[in-house]
Amino acid sequence: MRVLRGSFKTAVGVALSCLCLLVLSGKATLLAAETPPPDRQQALLDAVSAAQKKLADAVQAKKPADAEVAAQDVEKALAAYRAEPTPTEIVARSGDLGAWLRSHKPSSGTDPVSAALVNLALDIASYRGEPTSTEIAVKSSDLGAWLRSHKPPSGTDPVGTALVILVQDIATYRGLGKPDLIGKAAPELSNWITATNWGPADNTKDPFDLAEAIMLKMRVVDPDKAAASFGKMAKIMVGTEASTPIYRPPFERVGYANDMKSALLTLNDPVARARPVDWFTTQATQLRDLFGGADATAVAATLPRRTLLQNDPKAMDAAKAAKETIVLLQSGYRPQIHIVDALYGDLPTGRYSKRVCNATRTMISKCERKDSCHLDDGYKLALCGYDPIPAADDRTRAVAVQYACFTGGDAVWDRLASHPLEDPFEYSDLTNIRNPATGFAILRGTTMELRCPFDANAPTVTK
Fold first, then answer.
1. What is the pTM of this model?
2. Which of 56, 154, 210, 399 is most buried, taking the most CB atoms under 10 A from its CB?
3. What distance lies between CA 78 and its chain's CA centroid?
4. Secondary structure of 202-218 in the HEC alphabet?
5. 329: left (phi over 0), alpha (psi -120 to 50) or beta
6. What angle do CA 284, 288, 294 make, to 5 degrees?
7. pLDDT digits (tens, 9 = 90+) for 145-155
8. Which residues is 233 bridged to in the sheet?
9. Element holding 450 (H helix, E strand)
């Protein structure tokens, strides 16, 4: 019983001491009259108030154990109060630290305070919690206004380095590495380029590197879509796009014209080597259109242009060189002979007469894919391997040839070799005498010649 009485006395003494402290400091009046801010002081006062009631109940009921628990509650509340600073104390401490930092001058580049400040900044960020989207927008706007008013001195600007990191963070926030970001950033990049006034001495290596990187990425785009996009950009660049009528390309500037010529030549050569068919077809078509094409009225209208070129020695030298070079392709564009059928002998007696033989094979070997051909001196025996009319007069002898004239390369003639009686373009029957693609010729003796006309005088049968 003595032990309990001693504990009870101790608990009552602690509680009464706390109450005396509160009364002496004026806190008891605060409990009854004021509502303190919701911080640790209010938590302490609430705990002491609860302990008072519990202690009063224990004393009245003469329960020392309950009184001891009430005393322990007061001790716990005091410990919690001493462990957590009040907002006022935090503000005071923060102000003191700020004043100290403003006066602190580190003696060397490595400052042990920096690590502590980094940790402090992290703790402050954790204390403040995640910023709201409104806070981010306001801070971004404030930063933008400050940057617009900031005029860095020439040379290195320490703000630039910080901004590079900030731009990276912003890009990550906006979706760096995602295709959708390109749709958002492309108009911004366009505005940057539009606002830039390039000068002849400006260093454009970085923009070129950027363009190359974009081109490499564009390889995953559908080629037709990419070509259409680049074609539109090219038209805008030279001012020929209908949607940009206000821009007039300065062709009168010699420097601009020379740059355009150099760019075209630089592009022309690799395209010609890599895709000769497309290049040659385009150039030949453009050259033909330059002189009016196939329309006689249009051709007549180009007389001043042709006269200008004819009076220019440089242009005529180029025309001569072009003609000599194109001759290398003449086997592809000049009409050449294709033998359909050939008979030799006394022709009026008929195809199946003993006085007529089939000379098709021999005429093919002599005339196929040639501009012209004629009979050799020994044709009487050579055409069929024998002479069907050995005693006939030369005026009776004749070779009747059914033939066609075709233009084209190996593909055309390979087709004719495998299907000699079929038109390689229209697949019609060449043995039909009504087929407009074929013609007939009668050769008597070695002085007559079988030939296909040149393209300038080509008949309708020429393909």
1. 0.39
2. 399
3. 69
4. CCCHHHHHHHHHHHHHH
5. alpha
6. 135
7. 777 776 666 55
8. none
9. strand 449-451
